[in-house]
Amino acid sequence: MILISIIIVIGCIIAGYRLWKTHRTLSFISFGFLFAIFSACVGYVTYHSRYHTTPDSLQLSVYKKDGTYMVKGKWKDRLDLYRFPSDFLVFYVPDNEKISIVKRERYKDYEEMDVKSLKEDLKNWLEKQPHSNWEPQIFDIQTDKQFQFSFVLPDNVKPSDVKLYYVHAREEPMDALEYWFKNIELR
């Protein structure tokens, strides 16, 4: 598809240049077509770089069954084009107890990504957020229009003491990752 587009663009440039002296109307049409393609590309990139999802565009509901918490999520608005392929779940548990079982849909190529630097970047960002005295437990989750995940809390931890955040990552071209988070209340 890209090769065909390049051939069309080069063909319009050559046709517009060669027809300039003899058939100016055809030359203007050729250059006008190029201008329309260029304007459409710039408009597409500009539109998608200005569109951002917000925490309000994410609906979350929490269910508890037999000690297992299930969280279902749905995006009210469309997902942003420049989102990172996976979002994150961040648990803050008193006394830094470990969340042992987290079942979720993972991004299929997550293991091939440079996860270490990504998690370090996220941890640095989280240090500026509340609960920086507790160690964050970070789990990846695939970014989908609808999703769900489940987890089990340690036995001696009250749900009201646990802080759980859904962290959405956005990655615009030639820019650093941006994050926002949404609190998920457990009862």
Protein architecture, described:
This protein has 187 residues and is an alpha+beta fold. The protein folds into 2 domains: 2-50; 55-184, Immunoglobulin-like, CATH 2.60.40. The chain contains 3 helices and 8 strands; from the N terminus they run ααββββαββββ. The strands form 2 sheets. The chain has a 4-stranded antiparallel beta sheet with strand order 1-2-6-4, with no helix packed on it. The protein has a 4-stranded antiparallel beta sheet with strand order 5-3-7-8, covered by helices on one side. A hairpin with a 7-residue loop joins β7 (163-170) and β8. α1 runs antiparallel to α2.
Note the main attributes of this structure.
8 strands; 187 residues; four-stranded antiparallel β-sheet; alpha+beta; Immunoglobulin-like; 3 helices; 2 domains; 29% strand
Mean of pLDDT: 81
Instruction: Give unreliable regions as ranges.
Output: none
* Major sheet description: 4 strands, antiparallel
The CATH topology label of the largest domain is: Immunoglobulin-like
As laid out across the biggest beta sheet, the strand order is 1-2-6-4
From the spread of the alpha carbons, the general shape counts as elongated
Instruction: Provide a count of the helices.
Output: 3
CATH class of the largest domain: Mainly Beta
- Tally the beta strands: 8
Task: Summarize the topology.
Elements: H1 2-18, H2 24-50, E1 58-65, E2 68-75, E3 86-92, E4 101-104, H3 115-126, E5 137-142, E6 146-152, E7 163-170, E8 178-184
Antiparallel strand pairs: 1-2, 2-6, 3-5, 3-7, 4-6, 7-8
